[in-house]
Structures are given as structure tokens and as C-alpha cells.
Amino acid sequence: MLSAYKHRQPPFIQMIPLLLLTLISSLHQHESVAESSHISKIHYASTKQQNGVHEFHHEKVLSVTGDGILQSPDFPNTYPRNTVIVWRLVAVTESSRIQLTFDPRFGLEDAEDGICKYDYVEVEEPVGGIVLGRWCGSEMVPEPQVSKGNQILIRFVSDEYFPSDPGFCIRYSLIQQRQSEPEATAVMPAWMQSVDALSEAVAGFSTMEEVMKYLEPDRWQVDMDDLYKPTWQVVGKSFFHQKKSRGVVDLNLLREEVRLYSCTPRNFSVSLREELKRTDAIFWPSCLLVKRCGGNCACCSHNCYDCQCSPTKVAKKYHEVLMLKHRAGGRGLQKTLTDVLLEHHEECSCVCKKDSD
């Protein structure tokens, strides 16, 4: 019976549960939307309250081709409250820099605990957002500022309390950046170089002045004067023995030419460090000319197995040179004029070296 009764119910009675469910869902959705709208409004109000700044907010882009000024509104009178203004200065060329100079008439709301929290003007590098400075109060005029690139930002902020006068005025101007010169390769100071490295470097100079400039760029002239000052130390004499006259020329000219030019004292360059076996010192000049026997002995005795051009008269001669040595404890270089003794061959002859066999 009950089942039959249900089937006989009017259609609108059967739809009542569905209508109730739809009504409840609609009410719940309306409450959610209202709640969401309320949260959004509170968040917005919180943001405005935190900043303390209203809708007066501008950014002005200025193309800088020469000198100009920018200033707080109503300068030199009291500036308005609740203001944010940003000036973006852009130089016309990439190589230009912008210089900012503040007018001595400068006054904003004072800082709190040494921090500009409320009213201030600040300068910022657009690339990287680096703040070059933020200023307020009236006790100190900001120092001139120069951009690192061809742009710079200036931001002025005032809150809703205690506006001051006169505000600020900034004069801007262009500075042409000179083309950067290639960086010179870092050179180790001479006294820090090893003996071998310093010897190689010094050998490449052609004058004494060049050597002294390389060793001490800032005081080389003083060192030159010191080298030639008389001291109490005994300085060996520098001299060259004159070559003795050989007397009367033999009438057999051809034979004499062979004797003179086959095995004779000739100019040889010698390395002083090798010749003197002084690996602890550097000499300048690093090489000197000496007379040493040279040539061939093709006309030696037919009975000689090995005929060599050898010295028959030797002389020791002094040569004055510049000597450099590292001071003990790494305290720079000791520079002195000294005499070195070198062997010179004054006479030569073809000498037969008998076969050891």
C-alpha cells in the first residue's frame, strides 16, 4: 500500500527535496563569495596603511643631453604629503655618465634613530637595484653622485605626516666616459724575480738608464747618482792593456797574412755569469767582449795528428760592470759598480796536440 501511495503522489511533492538541496547550496556559495571579498578588502587596506602613501605616484623618464634640474614639488616651499615620484635619467650615449649635485638648500623630515623612514630622497642604480644613498633631515647636504652606467634613478617619498621645507633641488649634468685603456699586464717587481728571470730581463736593455728604470722606476735617478758617488771602499781600476806592437813586418807578406789571420786573438762575447761562475748575481752588461784565440791551423806541421789554435800569451783585465744581488731576507736588490777580472788572449799559435795513442 505504501509503495502504491508513493507512486500516486503529485510531481511537485516529489521535487521538494531537490528544491531544498539547491536552496541550501546557493546560500552556502553566497556566504563564501562574501567572505572572500571581505578578506581581499582587508588585505588591500592593510597594504595602504603599511605604506602610508596614497595614489600620487609618478615615474618620469628624462633623456639627458646636457645640464638640467629636478626638484621636489613646490621647492623651495613645503612639499606635499603622501607623494612618491621617481625620475629615471637616461644619458643619450652608452659611454656617458650622469652626475648629480644637490642644492645647498636641503630639508626633509628628520630621521628616526638615524634612519630615513618617512620622508626621503634616494639615488639608485637601475642595473642591480643598488641604492647609492638615501637622505633626509636638514643637517647635511648630500655629496655629489655619479652613475656607474648611462642611467640613474631618483626617488622622492613623503608620508602623511610632517612635511618640511624647502625640500630638495638636484642639478644633473653629463660626464663623458673616456675609453678604457687596456690593462697593463701585471709585472712582478724586479727584486722579487728569480736570479735567472731577472738576468734575462736585464740582458734585453741597451743602456744603463733603462736598466735602472726597470729596477727602480720611482727612484732610478737617485740610484744612478749613488752608483757614482765616491766611497771609502777601494774600487778596483778598470783598464784595458793596449796591444803591443809586433815590430817589423815580415817581407813574406803572404805567409804573414796566413799567420795573422789563421790563428789569432779575436773578439768573443762571453756571459759573465758563466765566465765567473757566479749564479748568485746578475751583471749588466750581461756579456762582454774579450780576446780569445780563434781560427784554424790548416798549415800546421804535416807530422801533427791534431793541431789546435791555442793561446801563447794571456793577460787578466778588469772591466767595470753593474752587479745586482738579492739582499738577505728578501729586502730588495743590492746595486753596486764592481770590477770583474776576465782572461784575454794576446797571442795565439797553432800547437800540435799529439795523439794519445
Structure characteristics:
single chain; 357 residues; alpha+beta; Jelly Rolls; Cystine Knot Cytokines, subunit B; 5-stranded mixed β-sheet; 4-stranded antiparallel β-sheet; 14 strands; rod-shaped; disordered N terminus
In short, what is this structure?
24% of the residues lie in helices and 34% in strands. The chain has 357 residues and is of the alpha+beta class. A hairpin with a 6-residue loop joins strand 13 and strand 14.
Ordered list of secondary-structure elements with their pairings:
Layout lengths: L1 H6 L3 H4 L1 H36 L4 E9 L3 E4 L11 E9 L4 E7 L17 E6 L4 E6 L9 E2 L4 E8 L10 E8 L18 H9 L4 H8 L4 H8 L25 H10 E9 H5 L5 E3 L2 E9 L10 E21 L6 E21 L4
Parallel strand pairs: 1-3
Antiparallel strand pairs: 2-9, 3-8, 4-7, 4-9, 5-6, 5-8, 10-12, 11-13, 13-14
Give your account of this protein's structure.
- The structure is a single chain.
- The protein has 357 residues and is an alpha+beta fold.
- Among the domains are: 118 residues, Jelly Rolls (Sandwich); 91 residues, Cystine-knot cytokines (Cystine Knot Cytokines, subunit B, Ribbon).
- It has eight helices and 14 strands.
- The strands form four sheets. Strands 1-3-8-5-6 form a five-stranded mixed β-sheet, with no helix packed on it.
- Strand 5 and strand 6 form a beta hairpin.
